[in-house]
Fold these 4 entries.
Entry 1:
Amino acid sequence: MNTIRGAEAVMKSLVAEKVDTIFGYPGGAIMPIYDALYDFKDEVRHILVRHEQGAIHAAQGFARTSGKVGVCFATSGPGATNLITGLADAMIDSTPVVCITGQVASHLLGTDAFQETDVIGISMPVTKWNIQVTRAEDIADAIAKAFYIAASGRPGPVLIDITKDAQFGMVDFQYTPCQSIRSYRPHPVMNDTQIQEAVALLNSAQKPYLLVGQGIVLAEAQAELKAFVEKSGIPVASTLLGLGALPVDHPQYVGYLGMHGNYAPNILTNECDVLLAIGMRFDDRVTGDVNRYAKQAKVIHIDIDAAELNKIIPATVAIHADAKDALSALTQQIEENSHGKWLQQFKELRQVEEQEVIQEAVHPTSEALKMAEVVQLLSDKTNGDAIVVTDVGQHQMIASRYYEYKGYRNNITSGGLGTMGFALPAAIGAKLGNPSKTVVAIIGDGGFQMTIQELGTILQAKVDVKILILNNNFLGMVRQWQQLFFDRRDSFTEIVNPDFVQIAKGYAIEATKITEREALSGALDAFLNSKEAYLLEVVVEQEDNVFPMIETGASVADIRLN
Amino acid sequence: MVQVYNISIFTENHIGILNRITIIFTRRHMNIESITASESELKGIYRYTIVVKTTESQVKKVVGQIERQVDVLKAFYHDDSQVVYQEIALYKIPTDTFMNGGSETIVRAHSARILSMEVGFTIIEKTGQPEELQKLFDELEPFGVLEFVRSGRVAISKPMKTLESYLAEM
C-alpha cells in the first residue's frame, strides 16, 4: 500500500482528475496542502492571486473557456468567506468549479477557534454540493465526487472543506474516479413522445421562434444547434450567456434577448406562435413582466435541470433533457422549412433599431467617444473571435450588443449574479484556460476597482490579458436608472478615479489612455498587437445611456428605443 | 389556493442535508409548519415529513428544487386527502388531580394512554390529529397541565408506489 499524508492525497487526487492549473492563496489552515503542492510544481501550475475572490473568478473564467473544471485553494475563515461571491456567481451561471478550503483541526470545530468559520453552512445555498472532510482516508472519495458533481448535469460549484488534521493524517492512497451517485441523476432520459409532441407543434407553426441559452454551450451542442436551425428555418435569439452559441453573423440569428437586448427579438417574443426555449431559464431580465410574456405562444422548454421547467414560464411541452440529445432528436424529425416571411419581420424591426439606436451608437455625432463605437471597432479588429470577458453594467450590455461573438466559448460574463469585479480575474483564468486566444477584458471604471489588486497576479504570472477600461467616471448603469426613474438624483454614482495608467505601470503593465476618436483605431491596434498584458483606458461620454431598454415590470413588447 | 401540503423527502444520511432542504423554504419566505425526520424502511435512507401551507404552484417548485439536491433521492408532495397522518402528544398532569378529580375519565374517553405515573405527576400520551390532541389538552387544562408537547406530523401517502420501486428505476 501507498501510505501518504492527506495533503499529498489532495494533490494526487487533483492530478488524477487531470488538473493542471490551480488558483489560490495560502494561509494557516491550508498549509499542509500548500506544502504538498510544492512537490507537484512541475505537474500543476499554481497561480497566486491577490484575494480569494480573484481566485474563484479566475477559476470560473478558466472553466468557462476551457470546458474543464476550475480549481481553487483558500484557507479557512476569511479565506473561505472571500470565495462566497464567486461561488454564488458560479452557482447561478452553472460554472463547474471545485474549491478546496483548509479548516481548523477537527477537535477545534465549533469552538470559535482562530480563523474558524462555518464555511459549510455559509456556502450551502451557493454550492451545488459541499462536504467537510475530517479524516485523511475520506479525501480521495470527496474529491472524486466533487469533480463528478461539478461537471455533470447542470454544472455548478462544489466546495470541499478539509480540516488540518485530515491534511496531516496518513492514508493508504487509492483514487477511483466517481461515475455515479445513487441519489443523483445528471443525465436525464429523454422522453421520445415529448420530442414528437414538440416536433408536431414546430412543424405546424407559422411563426416558430427559438431562444437559446448557455445550456447549448455547456452541452457542447453548437453543431447540433446549427444543424437544427438550418433545417427548420427557425429564427434564433440568444440570452446573455448564450451569445455565441450560434455565431452572431448567422443569417437566422436575430439578436440578443432581454432588458438591453435587441428590439426585434424582444417584441416578436409576443408574436410567435411556438416558442422553443433550450438551455435557458427565463430570467426576469429576459422575460420582463411574465404575465405579458409570450402568452399567445405554445411554449416548448428543454432543460437539463428539471427544476427549471415550469418554474417561471408554464410550458406546453416541458422536456427534461440534455440540449445536445434534444437537438439531435428534433433535427431528425423536423420538416425542412424556411420561414422567410417571419424572418423578414425580424429584419424590418432590426432596421428600426439600426436607425434609431445603432447608427448613432457606432457612428456618433457627439464629440465624446461612445462605448458602442469602441466595442464595434474591437469586434471588427478581432473578427469577433477574441475571448471577451466583461464585467457588469453599461459596458457589459454594450459589449453584449455590439461585440459580434463568432468564436467557441468566447463570451465570458457574470450574468445571473451581476458581480462587479468579475472581469479582471475571470480574464486571467480565461487566458490560462485558452492560451492561444486573444483575451480582452472589457471593464468599467467602477468594476475595475473592485478587483484591481489582480493586476498583481497578471504581473507575477505574466498573463497576457488585454484590459480595456471604458471610463465614464460614473457607476453608469445606476446613474442611467437614476436619470430615468429617480428624477436624475445622482446619489453617489459619480466616481473619482485614480490614474489607471500610472497604476498599471506600477504593476509593469503597459498602458495608454485615450480621449479622442482619432486615436481610437491606432490605440486598439497597439493594444491588440502587444505581446503581453496591456491596459487601454478609453474615456467615454459621461452620461451615455444604454438603449433599447425594457423597464422593470414592463412587457418585452414595450421595449423602449430611447 | 393556499392549503396544507405534506412533503415527503427521501435522502442519504449525510451531515447538513436538513440545512440544504430548509434553505429552499427560507429563500422563498415560506414557513415550515412542522418537520420530522427518521430512518425509512430502507436502511441508510432517511425520510422527512415537512408540512407547509402554500399554493400548489409554490409547493411544486419547492419540491423540484429539493429533488435537485445531490443527496436527495426523491421528493413528493400530497394534500391532506392523499395521506394518512398522525401526531403524538404528551401531557404531564399532577397525579393528585388525576386520581381525585375525574380526569381519569377524560383520559379513557379520549383513548389516551398512561405512560408513567409518579407521586407528583402522571404522563399521558395520545396519538391523533392535531384537533384531537388539542381537545384533550383543553379538557385536561382545568385540572392543571404542567407540561404539554406535541410532535410534528408523520404522514404516509395513500398511492401505493414504494420507495424501492423508485430506487429501482434510478
Entry 2:
Amino acid sequence: MNRRTLLASAAALALPALLPGARARAQTPATPVPAGETLKVGFIYVGPVGDGGWSYQHDLGRKAIEAEYGDRVETTFIESVPEGADAERALTQLALAGNTLIFATSFGFMDAVINTARKFPNVKFEHATGYKRADNVATYDARFYEGRAVIGTIAGRMTKSNKIGYIGSFPIPEVIQGINSSFIHARKVNPGVEMKVVWAYSWFDPAKEADAAAALIAEGVDVILQHTDSTAPLAKAQEAGVIGFGQASDMANFKPTPRVSSIIDNWAPYYIRRVGQILDGTWTSHGVWLGIGDGEVEIGEITEAVPAEVKAEAEALKAQIASKAYHPFTGPLKKQDGSDWLAEGAVATDEELSSMNFFVEGIAAQIPS
Amino acid sequence: MLRLEPRPAAPAWLELATPVMAVIATMIAGGVLFALMGFDPVAAVRTIFWDPLFGPAASYSRPQLLVKAGPLILIACGLAVGFRAGIWNIGAEGQYIVGGLCGAAVALAAYPAEGAWIFPAMVLAGAAGGWAWGMIPAMLRNWFGASEILVSLMLVYVAQRLAAWMAFGPMRNPEGFGMPGSRNLQQYPSAANPELVAGTGAHWGVVAAALAVVATWFLMSRHIRGFHIRAAGLAPRAARFAGVSPAALVAFCLGLSGALAGMAGLFEVAGPGGQIIDSFGSGYGFTAIIVAFLGRLHPLGILLAGLLLALTYIGGELAQLTLQLPAATVQVFQGMLLFFLLAFDTLTRFRIRSARAMA
C-alpha cells in the first residue's frame, strides 16, 4: 500500500505461535538511559512530512517528544521512504547512526522492520499498524472507527438529501470498519440515510479524490466523509456548498464550513510514553490498539455550522466511547447479506474487527474483490 | 531572438567531457540550492557524494550501491540500444513491474514446492513478461504508427494498476490476515534471490547487470545487428536502403529493453523487495533513462552512471539522516543532472547566435 496501515494488532494477539520472534522468550532486562546521556530516536515516514496528513501527524508526534524531553533526546527522520528494499536500508542506516529507538510509521514497512530488528537486537523498534512482533519490535495502532462513529452521527443529522458519500482509499479492514461505523451511527440518528461509497485506490491523490467527491456530489450527496488524506474533497465540497470532515489532521483552513469537524490522529501521547519507558528502562514489546479514551484519536472542533443540539449529541457519544461505556460495534447488527452478526448487546471482538471484510446491513455499495 | 546553429564539428573529447561537466555543475548548483535553504553546502555535497563511499558507515552503504545500481544498469543497457536506433522506450517502469509480477506469479504458483528449477523459471517468466509488455508499443507502432513514446509511457500506469490489483487480489498472501501484499519471497528458499556473498550486496540481479554491460557492448560494437541499430539512429533512410527493416528493429529494441527491465523487476521482487505490493514500481524504470543518457548510451558509461545515480540515492538518504535535508533533494539532484547534461550536449553541438546578427 502506498502507505501504512491496516489493523491486525488484534489478530496477532491470537497467533503468537505462528509468528517468528513473537514466541514467548525471556525479555532481556532493559537498563535506564543514564542522566546526561542523549537518547537518539529515529523515524521513517512513507510520505513527505509536508503531506498534511498521515506522515505530518507522525512528525508532530516526533516534535512532541523533543518538546517533552528536551536535551535528553535527539530525533531524526527519513521521509518519503518507499516500502520494500529501501525501507530496510533506511532503518539500517538509522540503527547504524546510533538511534536506539526507531518508529516505522507505515504498515508496508513490516517485513523490513522484522529483518532489521533481527540484525540489531539492542535497538528497539515501534511499528505502526503492523502485526509482526519480536522482543525488540512493538506494534501500535489507533481505533479510528471510534472517531468515525462520532462524525457519522453528525453526518446523519446534517444531511438534507439523506445521501452521505464516503471516499474510501482501499477495501481493507481499517477502512471498512470506518465505513460501517459511520453508517451505523448516521442511521441511528436518521433512519432514512443512504451511504454511497467511491474507492480512490490511493491514500493521497488530490486529483482522484477531487473526482471522487465530484462524482458523489453529482449523485446528490450533501455530506462527504473521506478516508484519504488530501484536502481536495473539502475544496470540492466548498464549491458545491456541501459539507465534509478533516481527515488525519484537522484541516482547519476549511473551517467553519465545509469542514464542520475532523478526525485527528494524535500519536504524541503514545510516542512520549514509549520514549519515557526507554529512558527509565521499562520498555517492553507489546501490541496496542488505542482510541479516543487514550487521546490517540481526537475529534477536531465541531464548528458553528453544526446546530448546538447535534454538537451536544456528538460530544455525548464521544464521551461514552472514551469512557468505554459504549462500543461503536454493539448488537443487534446484521451483515449486508442479511445474516446475523452481533446479537442484542453483544460487542465485536478485536479479532473480528481487524479482519472485517463485510459491510453491515443497509449499505447498498459492494466491497470490490 | 536567439537561435541555435550547428557547429561544424564538435571535438570528440567533448562527448566524454560533458557528463563530467554535468556532474560538476550539478554539485555546484546543488550547493547553491542548499546554501539558500540554510544548509552547509560543502557538508551536504560531501554527505551525498563522499560519505556513502568513505564515511563512517561505508562498509554498509558500499554494498548497497550495488543493490541500487543493479536494476538501473540492467534497465539502462536495454534502453540505450533502443535510444541508439531512435526508438524511445519511456515505459521501462511498466515493463519492470510486469516482469516482477510474472516472475512472482511463477514462484507463488509453485509455492511451497522446493526445486532448483523454480528460480530459473522465474527469471524466464520475468523476462517474458517485460518483453510482452514492451511488444505492445512495438506492435502498435508497427501496425498503426502509434508513437511508442506515448504508448509505452501510458502502459506504465496500466502496469501500476495491475500491480495494485495483484497485491489486493490474486497474489494476496493467504496467510496475511486479509492484508494486501504477496508472500515474502525472501522467506521461500527456492524463489529467493539473496546476497550471493554476504556483505557484498551482490545478488543475481547485479550479476545479470554486469553480463548485460558486456553483452550490449558486444552487440553494439561487434555484431551486425548493432551496426544496423546505429545506422538506423544516425541515418534512417540510408539504413533502409541497406536492407534494415524498421519494423523488425522496433520489435527488437522494445522487446530487448522490455525483457531486461522485466528481469530487473523479477530480481528485485525475489531479492531486496521481497514481495508484490501495490507500490511495487519505485521509479527505477524512469531513473534508468537518466542513467542511459548520462552514460552516453555506451555500456561502460552506463555502468559508471548507474553507480553514480545509486550514490545520489544512498547519499540523499544519508543527507536526510545527518543533515535533515528534505527527501525531494534527491529528485532535484537527479533532475538537475539530466538537465545539465542535455544543456551541455546542446551547447557542444550547436552554438548560440542572435538572430539579428544573422540578418
Entry 3:
Amino acid sequence: MKSLQYVAYAGVLAALLLAGWSSALAQNVTYDDILHSSAQPQNWITYGGNYSSHRFSELKQIDTQNAASLKMEWVYQLRRTGIFETSPIVVDGYLYMTEPPSTVTALDVRTGKAIWRWTPELPKNLLTIGLFPTNRGVAVLGDTVYVTTIDSYLVALDGKTGAVRWRVHVAENKEGYAITSAPLAINGKIITGTGGGEAGLRGLLDAYDAKTGKRLWRLWTVPTQGEPGVETWGGDSWKWGGATTWNTGSYDPELNLLYWGTGNPAPDWNGDARQGDNLYSCSLLAVDADTGKMKWYFQFSPHDTHDWDAAEPPILLDAAINGQPRKLVVMANRNGFYYVLDRTTGEFLSGVPFIKQTWAKGLDAKGRPILMPDIDPSPQGTLIYPSITGAINFSSPSYSPLTGLVYVTAREQGAYYFKGRPKMEPANPELAGGGGGQRVLTGDPAYTAVRALDATTGKMKWQFKLVGDSWTGTLATAGGLVFSADVAGNFFALDAATGKPLWNVHVGAAARANPVTFAVDGKQYVAVAATNSLFVFGLP
Amino acid sequence: MIRIRSSRVAALVFILCGFGLCVPFVAFAAGRAPQATKPAAAPPGKPLFEGACAVCHGMDGSGGNGPNIRHAAARLGPNGIEDLVKVGFIGSGMPTFPQLGDEKIRQIVDYVVSFDQEASGTQPGDAQKGKEIYRSKNCSQCHIVNGQGGNLGPDLTRVGTRLSPGSLSDAITSPGLKLPLDANLAERAAFRAYLMQRAVTKDGREITGLRVNDDTFSVQLRDAGGQIHSLRKLDLQKLEDLPGKSWMPSYKDGLSETQLNDLVSYLAGLRGAR
Amino acid sequence: MWNAGSYDPETNTLYWGTGNPAPDWNGDGRLGDNLFTCSLIAVDANTGKMKWYFQFSPHETHDWDSAQPPILFDAAVKGKPRKLVSLANRNGFYYVLDRTTGEFLTGIPFVKQTWAQGLDAKGRPITLPNIEPTVEGTLVYPAITGGINWNSPSYSPLTGLFYVPAREAGSYYIKGEEKMAPGNSVGMVGGGGGGAKFMTGDDVYTTVRGLEATTGRKTWEFKMTGDAWTGTLATAGGLVFSADAGSNLFALDALTGKPLWHLQVGTAVRANPITYAVDGEQYVVAVAGNSVFAFTLPQVAQAPQAPAQGH
C-alpha cells in the first residue's frame, strides 16, 4: 500500500513561510487518517464514516443510559429553500456540509457559526432530469474540500477559506448529467460518479488527481460498440443505457477496489427496446482504484423495468460464513433483497428479502432473481412490491461491528407500475425515464421501519416501525445507539440491541439525510439535516 | 454634524475600500486616483434598485441594514443574483419581489452587476512585470489568485473589478488603514472584514487574529497559521480591536514607483478569469 | 397604521401608532405638521372617533414611523397614580403620556439622537438645524430603521421596567423628489423620494435596555453585536427573552440584564418571542428563519417518549 502524505500547495507554502508563527495547521486530513478513521472518532472523516461505509462511530459519550437527556446544541438554517440531503464531514472542529443545490458551507462545530461559504454560478437552463437539485456532501483530503456540483463539475476548495483551487468539468449537463453525490477521496484521488439515469445517457465513474484535478481514468458503466456486454442491450439502446453512479461508493484499501452501485437502465419502465440484461445497470461494480478497470460486477436486477437502482451504499465487512472468515460486501437493495457477496471475487453468498416483495420467487444459486410472471409495467398498471422509490433509496444503512447488525430504513410499499415509451428521447426533461411510472399504494398499509438485520444472513433481529415514509439513513454508535428519523420530523435514538426508542425530538419536518456524530473539546454531538436546518444535539 | 459632499463620493469611499485593500479617502480626494466612475445615462435598474433594494442595501449598494452587495456579481454572478431576488433569503430579512416581474428584476440585476465593473482605468505600468514582482515579493504567501496562494489576506482573483489602480496602490503602501465591510456572509454583513483582534482568555491564553465571526456570545478568530479559534466571550478577560493593524507589510519603501505601478497594473488586470 | 396597537377595555379606547408622511425624505411638497402622521392616536373602539392624538415627530422627514406598540400601564408619577401609555419611538425618544388625556408627561432619548435639542413642555421636539435630508446626504442619529422599529418592547409590572430592543446607529439621509406618484411603487420604498445610506460596521449595535417605565431612565443594558430585529418578552420568572443579530436566542435576568442562557438557532430571530404553558409545562417560543422553536425545561425522571408508532 502506498502511503502518500498529501499536502496541498497552499499548505506547503504556509508551512514553509509561516513556520514559527503558529503550530501545525489543523484540519489536514491525510489518506492515512481516513484509512484509520476509527482512531479519530471525533471526526466524521468520509461520507460513509469509513471507507467501508459503516456509518458507525466509536464515540460512546452518548449512550443508552443518557440518550434521553439529549438537547439541542445549535441550529444552522439554510438561507434559501431546497431539498436538504447533506451528510456533513467533520474535521478538527470544522463541519463541512453542502446546501442545495451546490453550496459548500464550513461551520465552527462549537457554535454553529459559518466560517465560509462557497456557491457556484449555475447555468440558467440547468437540466435535472429524474433527480432533485440537491447535494449529499463533500469529501476532504489534505486541506482541500471536494464537492460536485449539480451542473456536473468537480471542484476543489481551500478548506480554510473556500477559495477555488481547481474546477473540472466531469460531464455535460446539457446531456442530462447532474451530480448530487458526495465524492470519495482515496489515496491522492477523488472519485465521483454522476446522476441523470432518466436523461438518456451512459453512466460513468471517474477518478481525478486530488492535487491538480487531472482526470486519471474513466469507467463507462454501459459498454459501447465492440465491448463485451454490449450484446446485453437490444439494438442501439446502449447509447442511452443509463446505469448511472449517483451515490457514493465504498473502498477496500487492501484490495485497492472501489465498490460502486449503478442505477437503472433507461428507459425505466419499458424494456422492449433494450432486450437483454442491460449490463452494467442495477449492479455492484468492483473497480481497480488505480486503473479504473472493472474487476468484477454483480447484477442484482437484470433487465430492470422498475427503476430499482442499485445505488445504495455497499457495506464492507469481514465475517465468518459457514465457519469460514470472508471478506464481504453487503447491500440492502432497492429491489427488496439483502445481498451478501464475497468482495474479493463478487461471488454471491446469500440474498433474502428484507421487505415484502412480489416480483421474484427467490434468487438462484448465483443470486439471479427467479422472476414471477407478469411483473412488467403495463398500460393499465401492474401492482408490484416494492414501489419505485424502493425498499431503500439513497439513505445509507449503518453497520455496528459490536452488534453485527446492519441497520436499514426499510420501506414497505407497493405500486402500480405503468409502462412508458420504449425509446429514450435524450435530455428531454418532459419524458424523464421515457415516461411511464407509478401510482403508489398509499395510506396506512404503506410504512417504513428501521430494521436490524443480521449482517451475514439478512435475518431481521428487530424492527422499529415508523408512521409514513422515511428518507433518513441510520447512524450506529459504540454507545449502543442507532439514530434515524421519520417523515413527520421525529429524530430519534434507538437501542441498537433491541430497537427500543430512547429519545426523540420533533424537528419540524422530514429529515432526508443521513445523521452523523462527532466530538469537539471532548463533547459528543449528533447532527441531522432536516427541513431547512442542520440540527445538532448533545448532552447537557 | 458630518456631511459628505455627494452620494457619488460616498459611493467611491466604499469602492475604494474594497476587499481588504484600503485607501485613505484623503489621498483619493487629493487627486491621486486616476479613475472616477463615469456617470452614464441612468440605467433602468437604478430607480428600481433605489425603490426596492436601497432601503436595506443602501443607495449605492454598500449595505447597512442588509449586506454590502457592491461585489455580489463576483460571488454570485448575474444568475445567482437574479435567483436571490426571486427566492429571497431565509431569516435575513431579504424578501421576494413578486410584484416586480422578470423584466424589472433583470434590470435590477444588471444595475447590481454594474457595481462590480466600476473600478478600472488606465493602467500605470507593465502588468507582465508586475506579475513577476507579485511572484518575487511572495504575495501568494497570503493572497490567492485563481485558487493558488495562502489565505491570510483577501483573495485577489477579481481584485481588479473591485479596486481602481489608485486604491490598489494605496493598499500596497498603506495596508490595514481602512477596512471594508465583510460581504462574504450575510450574517456578518455589518462587520469590517480583516479586522485584527486580540483576545485574552481568563486562563491567560492570548490569541491574535483576524475576526471571522462576532456575535454577542462568541467570536471566531483566524490566527496567523490560518487556524480558526472559536472563543466564548464568557471565557475571555479581554477582547480588543487592533484597528489599523495588518499582517501585510507596507511596500512603501520596498518598491520603486515604477515597480509599484507595474504591480498595480498586474492587480488591476485580475478580473476573475479562471 | 401598520403595526398592532393596544386597547384599554376600561375606557374602551384603542391606542394606535401611525407611520411616516409621504414622500418620506422630502417635505417640500407637504409643508406643515402633517397631522396625524408619526403620532399616537387614541380611538373610541365603538365609534372609531379619535379621542386625542399626540404627534411625536411633526413634519417628519426621516421615515420615523410611530408604529411601535404602545404599552399601557398604571403607575405613580410624582406621587400621583396615573393611567399611562408609553412608547419607545423610532425617533429615539421614550415617551410617557397620560393615556386618558394624551397629556405629555416625560420624554427622554433612549438612544443617541442628533436631531433634537430636547422636547418642550408639550413634548414637541426642539429640532436642531440642518437635520433635513439633502441631496448630498445628512448624517443624523437614529438611523432610518430607527431607535426601535416594529419589534415589540415589553413591560414587567414586577420590576417596573420597560425592556426595549434599542438600535444605536445613524444614517446619511438623502433627499429625493418631492412629488409622489400614488400607486407607482416598485418595492419597499415606493416613490419615497430619496433614502439613506447607512452607517455600518462596528459602530452600529443593538442592545436590550431596561428602562424605568415612568421615567425612561436606563437601569441596565445588555449590548449585542450587530443589528437585531427581535422584540423582548418579560416573564414573572424574572427573565427577559430576546435575540441578537448573530441568531442567538437568549434569556436575561430581568433585574440586572445578566445573560442566563442562550442558543444558536441558525438565523436571525426577526420576531417577538412569546411564552405559554400547557399541561403545567412552560414553553418559550421564537420564530427564526423558516422555523418555530419551542423550549421547555428538561423533563427529569420521565420516561422517554417514543415517536408515534405505527402498526
Entry 4:
Amino acid sequence: MRFELNGEQQAFAESLERLLTASDTTTVARAWSDGDTGPGLALWHRLAEQGVHALLVPEDQGGMGAGGVELVTAFEALGRHGVPGPYVESAAYLTTLVSDDDLLERLAAGAVATVSIPPQVPHALDGDAAELAFVVSSRLHRATVGEPVTSVDHTRRLSRVTTGDPLDLEVGPGAAFDVASLATAAQLLGCGERLLDDAVAYVKQRKQFGREIGSYQAIKHRLADVRIALDFARPLVAGAALDLEAPDRARDVSAAKVAASDAAYLASRVALQVHGAIGYTAEFDLSIWLLKVRALVTAWGTPTYHRTRILDSLLKAGA
Amino acid sequence: MDLELSPRELAFQAEARDWLAAHVPAEPLPSMDTPEGWTAHQEWEALLTEGGWSVVSWPKEYHGREASLVEWVIFEEEYYRAGAPGRVSQNGIFLLAPIIFGHGTKEQQDRFLPSMASGERIWAQAWSEPEAGSDLASLRSTARRDDARGGWVLNGQKTWSSRASFAHWGFGLFRSDPEAERHRGLTYFLFPLDADGITMRPIAQLDGEPGFAEIFFEGVFVPDADVLGEPGDGWRVAMSTAGNERGLSLRSPGRFCAAADRLVDLYRSVTEDGQFAGHCTSTVGARVVDSWMKAQAYRLYTWGTVTRLAGGGEMGAAGSVNKVFWSELDVALHETGLDLLGAEAEVESTWTDGYIFSLSGPIYAGTNEIQRNIVAERILGLPREPKGARR
C-alpha cells in the first residue's frame, strides 16, 4: 500500500513540468485561440517526443505501455499550463479505443486526431488542426470536419463533423470514454491548482485599506475552501487511475470527474472574485483557465451524466 | 502507486472482520451520555479489550497488538462497517494517549495506559473556559506552585467538557506562570475528577443528554507525578493532541463509508417504496451521490496520509484540511438522510441522532473557521490577520 507517486512517476511529472514551464504556454494558448496553431503544434510534437501521446499504447505497438497514473500526471500538467489541443481525443480516447497497429503507431508518434461521440461529445475539438477525424456512433467512422462552432473557451476550437465511412472496428461502451473522462478530470485538477496558485499570489500582493487583501478572513476562507476541495478531488482521480481495467472503473471515473469539476469550478469562481475587475479582462492570463474550466466541466460527460452513472452503479451493487 | 494490501494486512482484516461479526451487539447501545448507555459502552470496551481490539496500534504491554498505521485504518474500516458502538474511551485513547506516549514518563505510561485501553478509566478533556474558546491561549485557570506538598494547586473553571459528567479523570491546560503571556507559562495536568475541590455541573447537549459538563476547581492539589511534560511547556504538548484530534484518529474514514452505504440503502428503499413516485428525485439523488463520493474521497485521502506518515512525514496543517472536510461531509450526509425520510424525518431515529451529533463536528476540535485560518496561513502562506488587543 503506497498511495503516492513512485520515484519514476515523480520524475516523469517533474520533467513534464520543466518542459511546460519553459514553453510559454500562455502565448501558445493565445495564438491557438487566434487561429495560429503553429506554436501549439510545435509543443504538441515536443510532448509527443516525451511520450505523452504514447503512454497508453502497448510497448510492442510503439508505445510506452504506461498506465492511468502516468496519464493523469500528464493531463494534470497540461491543465496547469493551459495547453491547447485535442490531447484527450488523441492521447486518451483514441489510443485506448483503437487496436489497429498502423493507426496506434501514428497516434503514439504524435498524429493530431480528433473525435466526436454524440451526444456526450457533440463537436470535434480542434478539427481544423487535425490530420485525422472520427465519429463514434455504434462503431468508429471517418469524419469530415465542417463549420466551426464557438466554444466559451476560445482555445477550444470546435467544429461540426459529418460522418463518413465506417472503419472495420466495433466499439463497446467501455474503457475509451472512461479514460477520456478521467484525463479530463486530471486536466480540471491542474486548472484548479493553477487558478488557486494565481489567486494566492495575487491576494498576497494586492493591498486595500492599508493591508494585503489575503490577510482578510473573507478572502482566506474562500481560498481555504478551494484548497480543501482540490485536496479531496485529487485522491479520487488517482484512485480511478490506478486500475483502468477495474470492475468499478465507470463509477470511480465518474466520481473523479464530478469531484474534479466541482473543485476546479469553485477555484475558477473564487479566483475571479478575489482578483476583482482585473480578473474580468480578456488580457489578463487568468481568463485562459477561467473559461477552460467552464468548458471542461461539461466535456466528456456532464456532472449530471456522471452522477447518474454513480447512482445507478451504487443501486445495482447493493440490490 | 498502489492500494494493495499485503498478505499480513489481509489476514489482519479477515481476523478483525470475523471477530466483529461475532461480537458486535445486534441492537445499538443506548446513548453513552445516559447512565445505562455509559455502563453498556464501558462493558463493550471491556469485551473489545478481551479480544485484543481496543487499541490495536499500541504496544502489547498496554493491551495493544502493535498494528501498523495501515492496519489501524483497516481495523477502523471494519469496525464501522460492522456497525460497532461509538468509543466511550475515545478522548483517552485517541487524544490523550499519543501525548502520554510522546511526553509522558515510563511511570506515567505504566500507570495510565492499561486502564485507559480497557475502558475501565474514562478520560475527559478540560480545554475550553467561559472566556477561552477558539482563543484557547487566553485561558485563565491557574496552577500555583506548592513546594511543600510537591505539586500544584489548581483554581478556575473549565467548560464544554465532553463526557465529564461520567468520566473518571480529566486532562487540560492551566496557567502556571501568571507573568507569562498567552502560549507561554501553561502546564498540562492530569487529575481525578473526584478530587477534593472539584465540583461538576452537567450540561445537557442539544439532544437533551448530559454530554457536557462544567468543571469548577477550588484549590485542587495535583502532585508533580501527574504533570504531563515539563511545567510551562503545556501549549506545545497540547498542540500535538490538537493535531491528532483534527487529523487521522478521531474520524476514521470507515465511519463515513459505512454511513454513506446506509444512505444509499435508504435511498433505494424509499424510491422502491414509491414514496417518491411522481416527485423530482434528481436533486436528492445527486446529494446521495455526493455523500458517497466524498466518503470515498476521504477514504482514499486517508491512504495518502497514511503513506506520508509511514514515510516519516508529519500531519501538520493538513489536519485542518481534513477536519473541515469530514465535519461538513457528516452534516451533509445526515441532512440528506433526513430529507429522504420525508415527513417521518422528525421522528427520533438513528438519522436524527446522527444528525444532532454531526452538528457538533464543525465546532469542536477547533471550529472550522479556525481551521480555515490555519489552512490559509500555514498551507497557502497568506498573511496573518492583525490580532485584537491583548487583555
